[in-house]
Every structure is written in structure tokens, then in C-alpha cells.
Amino acid sequence: MEKAIEVKGLQKAFKGKEVLKGVDLEVKRGEIFALLGANGAGKTTMVRILATLLKPDGGNAFVNGVEVASQPEKVRHAISLTGQFAAVDEVLTGRENLIMIAKLRHLEQPRQAADDLLKRFGLTDAADRKPSTYSGGMRRRLDIALSLVGKPKIIFLDEPTTGLDPEARIEVWKIVKELADGGTTIFLTTQYLEEAEQLADRIAILHEGRIIAGGTLAELKKRFPPSEGRVCGKTADVRGNLPRHHRQKGGHLNGNGKKPLFQRYGRHARTFHAPYFPQRGHDLHGLRHADRDDAAVRVRLRRRDRDRYG
After folding, report:
1. Strands 202-207, 185-190: parallel, antiparallel or unpaired by DSSP?
2. Same domain, 8 and 115
3. What is the largest CA-CA distance in the chain?
4. Residue 285 pLDDT grade (very low, low, confident, very high; cuts 50, 70, 90)
5. Residues 255, 131: one domain?
6. Count of domains in the chain?
7. Rounded to the nearest 5°, which phi and psi values hold at 278?
């Protein structure tokens, strides 16, 4: 299958700190590709380079068959980018936002293009209202609609469900699947394993500036089976009867990794799945009762006194 995106040895540093350390990946045309990683892994930096907003320090990147560094103008004609937060004009109405972008894209019938997208995204009734009156899900739908003006071949979605409630997240997932069904290539970044599972044809895991694993969901599950760990100062197995105060407040875990790539919790927080665990002395926040089985939750690590839990 033809490649929509190809990255070879991509490098980027800020003030001497390496953010991308020789990244290699390929995205096939028409697929949903998820770049999965924790905060600070380099996901947004990767997207900004591919979207021509940053220049790489080394390596090569090709988007739609065009080298990003040498021909950014040609790349921009084939892509669209939706960032982590909705980038809509608060002064204009939803319809006016779409018409403005259509005119900037030099479409012959900007009003018709706006009306078609409003209908497609279920925003016709709110078309003449300002985005400041929209719900979070409606604002994100408008934001993605703006990205579709001009029918780009490749869309970058940088953590598109950040800050959305569960219902709005499901709305966005539905839109992304519909885009892919229509032949659009989707490059999605996320820190939620559940999101990657729901949407992606293929997943790559970015950790500390490097791709450490990639493939289909089935391939990754074979490569990273559920791990076990123990709570420091206690004898409870994380997969078993986790002490109540650790379930509520978090606990210190032993392990062989520096940071978790992603976290998943089973029902009632009794099962912890991860490729590896945090080092001793990290506090596992967010360990709580899940609303449903295998719900993916974001976990924040913070240093604490090692003696706190005995």
C-alpha cells in the first residue's frame, strides 16, 4: 500500500535537550495511525514537524510523497492540523468560521462548503451561534470540520479528545472513523490506550523520543503481555487484593522502567496493566474505581517520600 507519511531518523532538540532521538515510522494511505505516549514523549513535536510548523534537526520526513523540510508549501496543500485545543474564532459564528476558512482555501463556493460541513457534523441548528455558546463536544466538532475544508488528504489530530467528557470523546471517535472510511489518512496522537484501541489500524509507542514498539493492536498485545508488580512496604500483589488505602491514595511500585508508557485499570482498580512499572519512589496517582472494565485513565506520576507508606 502507498505510504502517506514516511519518517526516517527524525531528530529534534530544544536548548540542548533531545526531544526526538532518531524516529522512524510509516503511515499507509487511508489508515488511522495512532502515536501513543505519555506527556513529554515528543508527540506534539512530531506532529508540528510533519505539519511544517517546525524544522527538524536531522533525518527526513515525507508527507504525501513530498519532503517536508524542502517543500513545505506543497505539503500544506495536502494536510490539515487539529491541535489539542479547539482553534475557533470566538467572534464569528460557527458558519462564519467555516466560510472564512473556505475563502482562505480559495474554494469557489465557500458558503455551500460551510453548509455541507455543518450538516455533516450535526451543527446546522447551532450554525448562527458563536462558539462560546457551544459545548465542548460541539466546539471540537466545529474544529475538526474546519480541518476538513478543502478535503485534505491527510489530517493530523493532536490529542483531539483532551479535556472532553466521555460522551464528547465518543462523538469525536465516531467522526474520526467516518473520516477514515471516506479515505482520509488520519495521524492521531494520544496518551489514552483505550483511544488507540478504539480507533487505530496501527499503533506506534513513542517513549522519551524514540519509537519502542509498533504494529497492530493484536501484535502489540502479544509483545507486551500484562505485567505484575508489588506495592513497596506491603506484600499485596498489584493484580490481587490491593490494600484499600493504596487503592484510594496510590502506592509506590517496584519495577524495571523509568516511566509508564500508559496505564489501564480493570474493574474496581484491582488489575493494573502496563508494559512496565514506575521506579521505586514514584507515586501512582489515579488508582481508583473505574466506571467500566478496562477503562483507560491518565495517570500522573509525582515524587514522594519513600517512607510515606511504610
Report:
1. unpaired
2. yes
3. 70
4. very low
5. no
6. 2
7. -65, 160
Q: What is the pLDDT of residues 195-219, one digit of tens each?
A: 998 999 999 999 999 999 999 888 8
What cell was used for 139? 466546539
**CATH of residue 10:** 3.40.50.300
Is residue 170 domain-shared with residue 88, that is, in the same domain? yes
Residue 58 counted as domain residue = yes
Question: In the prediction, which pLDDT does 137 show?
Answer: 84
Q: How would you write the chain as a 3-class SS string?
A: CCEEEEEEEEEEEECCEEEEEEEEEEEECCCEEEEECCCCCCHHHHHHHHCCCCCCCEEEEEECCEECCCCHHHHHHHEEEECCCCCCCCCCCHHHHHHHHHHHCCCCCHHHHHHHHHHHCCCHHHCCCCHHHCCHHHHHHHHHHHHHCCCCCEEEEECCCCCCCHHHHHHHHHHHHHHHHCCCEEEEEECCHHHHHHHCCEEEEEECCEEEEEECHHHHHHHCCCCCCEECCCCCECCCCCCHHHHHHCCEECCCCCCCCCCEECHHHCCEECCCCCCCCEEECCCCCCCCCCEECCCCEEECCCCCCC
Across the chain, mean pLDDT equals: 76
Q: Three cell numbers at 137?
A: 463536544
pLDDT digits (tens, 9 = 90+) for 225-271: 654 443 343 333 343 344 444 333 333 333 444 444 444 433 333 23
Lowest-confidence segment of 14-23, 123-132, 148-157, 253-262 by average pLDDT: 253-262
Whole-prediction pTM: 0.71
Domain extent for 182:
3-221
pLDDT value at residue 225: 63
Tell whether 57 and 138 lie within a shared domain: yes
